[in-house]
Design goal:
This protein is an alpha+beta fold and about 180 residues long. The protein has two domains: about 15-75, no CATH class; about 85-175, Lambda Exonuclease, Chain A (Alpha-Beta Complex). The protein contains five helices and seven strands. A five-stranded mixed β-sheet has the order 1-4-5-6-7. A two-stranded antiparallel ribbon has the order 2-3. A hairpin with a 3-residue loop joins strand 4 and strand 5 (about 125-130). The radius of gyration is 17 Å and the shape is globular.
């Protein structure tokens, strides 16, 4: 669901517009990855992007699938860790799945939603996709660490590893 925030007249309208575009771009990157399982699916990133744009109701005339997205996805495939995120062999891949958490008096219902969980014969890999690193690396690491604390209960016999994949920076970081 898209949520619009009220315009603050004290803010520069261009900055607000830029933020909205950045959020839309992040949604398109995430949705593109939803259509990929293994590394072979990344060979044609433009098709992934176009599927994502259709799913999200984005107009192709607003973006260049190649320049705005595909080039970054292609660059990300050169990361030495790409096959950890998009393996050739796996037992299960969970994409954008809600995992319900036990309720408490402060929070009757809560959930986490990792971008991707890849289950192999010996590992459970938690992957978060981010548009760009910027100053947010510590926050992103805490997010993945908190997911690991919960997911370890679902897969107690698996080694847990976390990854953060940054599209614009073309880097994958182990957490």
């Amino acid at each position: 669901m898209i949520r619009f925030r009220p315009v603050n007249p004290d803010n520069d309208l261009i900055e607000g517009h830029s933020s909205a575009i950045s959020k839309r771009r992040g949604r398109i990157f995430h949705a593109s990855m939803y259509f990929a399982d293994g590394i072979d699916d990344l060979k044609d990133p433009t098709t992934l992007v176009k599927k994502a744009m259709i799913m999200l109701g984005e107009r192709e005339c607003d973006w260049s699938a190649e320049k705005d997205f595909s080039v970054y996805i292609s660059q990300l495939t050169s990361s030495p860790l790409i096959e950890k995120v998009f393996p050739r062999q796996y037992e299960l891949i969970l994409k954008e799945r809600d995992i319900l958490l036990p309720s408490s008096k402060d929070s009757p219902v809560s959930a986490i939603r990792p971008d991707r969980i890849v289950i192999t014969t010996d590992e459970a890999r938690i992957i978060e996709f981010k548009t760009e690193k910027g100053d947010s690396l510590p926050v992103h690491k805490r997010q993945v660490d908190s997911y690991k604390q919960i997911i370890c209960r679902l897969f107690p016999d698996k080694k847990l590893v976390g990854y953060i994949a940054y599209f614009i920076n073309s880097v994958i970081i182990t957490v």
